[in-house]
C-alpha cells in the first residue's frame, strides 16, 4: 500500500470536505464562467494584441486569488464557526501544520476553474492564446502561485487573531484586483494610483506572469520582476512561519480562538 | 502517587473590548486563584454553576488559554510554554453540536484528526474501527455524513475523536449535555471503561447523578473560586445538611390516613405524589436524621405503609447546600470536611 505523507493526507481530507459543499460547485464551475463573460465584456471591442492571453490572465488571476487566498481565509473563519479551530490548534501538528495542507488543497481545487476558463476562452469564445515566452510563463506561474500561497498563510494568521478581519478582506478585495494588475496592466492606471501598485506585494508576481505571457508591459523587466517576486515569496513565507509561531501565544493570551 | 495535573493559584482575567475596539472595555475575572491536583487514573469532576470558571480551567489545562497568574502543569509540563510536550498526550471534548466537519463521515473525521495527531496510517487502520466499536457506531452509520447524525451519534463521534491519539489525559466539558438517557448511560460506561484502562479523566457536568456515579474526586467551583475539593463520598457525607427525607409509599388515602397526614403536615413539610391507581408516595422532610428515624416506626403502622425508607443524602443535596450557603464573595461558609 502506498502511504502518502501526512500533509497530503490532510490536504486530501480538506479537498473532500470542501468539494462536498454546494457552494463549491458555484466557486469551481459557475464563478469562472462569470469571470470569462466579464473579461469578454471588457475586451471584446479592444484592439490590443493577444486578447485570448489577456482574457485568460484576467479570469485566471481573479480565480487564483479567490481559490487560494480568499478560500483559505474563509476556511479559517469556517473552522472558528464550526468549533474545530481549537481542536486543530491544540493538535500535534498545530495550526500552521494544518493550514499549509489546506492551502495546498485549495490550490489543487483551483485547477478545475482554470481548466473551465481555458476551455471557455479558447474553445467556446474562440480567442486564440499566444504565449510570448513559454518557459518563463511556467516559471512565473509557479512563483505567483507560491506567492499567493505564502500571502494566504500570512492573512489566515490575521484571521485567526481577529474575528473582524472578514469585513476588511471584503472591503479590500476589489481595490487589490485593481491596483495589482489582476484585470489590466498597472501601467494603464492613472499615475496617482500607480503609487499604490508599487506598494502592493501582489503587483510584482502578477506583472511577472503578465510580462512572461504577453510580453513586456512597460513596468519592470522580467528578470527584475522575478527577483522582486522571489523576495516577496520568501518574505511572506518567513513572515507566515514567524506569525504562526507568535500566534500560538497571542491567541491564548487574548482568548480569541473560539466564539464563546 | 505523583499528580498528573497540578494547578496552583491559577487566575484568568478576560478583557472584553467594545465593538471595533471602541467603547469601554469590561474586565471579567473568570478564575481567582484556584489550586487543585489530579492523580493518575482518577476521574476528576469540576462542578459549578454556569459561568463559574469550569470551561476556562479546562481551556487552560488543554493549552487553549494562557493563565493570567499562577501555574497549571499537565503531565509535568507547564500548559503555557511547554504545550508541545502536552498536546500529543492529551485530548478534549467540548459538549454541544460544534466541533465537526459536517460533510465528512465518521471514518473520514477520525482519519483527519488522526493525521493531525500524526498517527501512522497503519495504526489508524487498526485503531479507528476499534474506536467506532467502542462508541457503538455501526460500519454503515460511520460512512454517512455527520450532518445526517442524531445528537447522540454526533457525541459518539466526538468521544471517538477524543481518543484518536490514545491520550493519557482526557478532558470532557459537559459531554452529556442534551443526550437522551440511553446515550448518556453509554457515555458513562465508556468513561468507566477508559478509567479502568488507566486514563485520567477531567469532567465538567451539570448532572449531579452523573458526577456522583463517575467521579472519584470533585471540585466545586463558583465565581472563579474553589468552594470545596474532596472525594465524592466525603463531599456527599460532609456537605449534605442534617435534614432527612422519609419516603413512605401507602395505598389509597382513607379518612384515617388523611387525618394522620394532616397531623404530620402541621409539623413537617410533606409532598404527596400519586404513584399509580391505588398508591400514593409521601415525602416527609424532617429537620434531622434522628427525628426521621424516631417517627418512622410509628408512621409505618399508622399509615399502613407498603414501603418506608430514609432517602440517602445525594451529591445534588450536598452541591445545592454548598452553593446556597456561599457568601457573596463566592466563599462557602460551610466547612470543608
Write the layout of secondary structure elements.
The complex is a heterodimer of chains A (260) and B (337).
Chain A: H1 6-19, H2 22-43, H3 51-82, H4 85-89, H5 94-124, H6 134-161, H7 165-179, H8 191-199, H9 203-214, H10 222-254
Helix pairs in contact in A: 1-5, 2-3, 2-5, 3-5, 3-6, 3-9, 5-6, 6-9, 6-10, 9-10
Chain B: E1 3-16, E2 26-39, E3 43-47, H1 54-61, E4 69-74, E5 77-78, H2 83-86, E6 90-94, H3 106-116, H4 121-135, H5 151-161, E7 169-173, H6 181-196, E8 200-204, H7 208-214, E9 217-222, E10 225-231, H8 232-239, E11 244-251, H9 255-267, E12 270-274, E13 279-286, H10 289-302, E14 307-310, H11 315-324
Parallel strand pairs in B: 3-8, 3-9, 6-7, 7-8
Antiparallel strand pairs in B: 1-2, 1-4, 4-5, 9-10, 11-13, 11-14, 12-13
Helix pairs in contact in B: 3-4, 4-5, 8-11
**Number of separate domains of chain A:** 1
Q: What's the gyration radius of chain B in Å?
A: 24 Å
Tally of helical segments of chain A: 10
Task: Specify the structural class of chain A.
Answer: mainly alpha
Gross morphology of chain B? globular
What is the CATH third-level topology name of the largest domain in chain B?
A: Rossmann fold
Would you identify the regions of chain A where 5 or more consecutive residues have pLDDT less than 50? none
> In total, how many domains does the architecture of chain B comprise?
2
Number of distinct helices of chain B = 11
Written as H for each helix and E for each strand, in order along the chain, the element string of chain A is HHHHHHHHHH
Q: Span from first to last CA of chain B? A: 22 Å
Largest sheet of chain A: none
Question: If you had to describe this structure to a student in words, what would you say it looks like?
Answer:
The complex is a heterodimer of chains A (260) and B (337). Chain A has 260 residues and is mostly helical. Chain A has one domain. Helix content of chain A is 77%, strand content 0%. Chain A has helices at residues 6-19, 22-43, 51-82, 85-89, 94-124, 134-161, 165-179, 191-199, 203-214, 222-254. In chain A, α2 (22-43) crosses α5 (94-124). The longest helix of chain A is centred in the C-terminal third of the chain and has 33 residues, at 222-254. Chain A is globular and about 55 Å long. Chain A starts with 5 loop residues before the first helix and ends in a 6-residue tail after the last helix. Chain B folds into 2 domains: 5-238, P-loop containing nucleotide triphosphate hydrolases (Rossmann fold, 3-Layer(aba) Sandwich); 244-319, 2-Layer Sandwich (Alpha-Beta Plaits), CATH 3.30.70. Chain B is α/β, with parallel strands linked by helices and 337 residues long. Mean pLDDT of chain B is 87; it is low at 333-337. Chain B has 11 helices and 14 strands. In chain B, α3 packs across α4, α4 packs antiparallel against α5 and α8 (232-239) packs across α11 (315-324). In chain B, β9 (217-222) and β10 form a beta hairpin. Chain B has a 6-stranded mixed sheet with strand order 6-7-8-3-9-10, with helices on both faces. A 4-stranded antiparallel sheet of chain B has the order 2-1-4-5. Helix content of chain B is 35%, strand content 28%. Chain B is globular, with a radius of gyration of 24 Å. The two termini of chain B are 22 Å apart. Chains A and B meet through α1, α4, α5 and α10 of A and α3 of B.
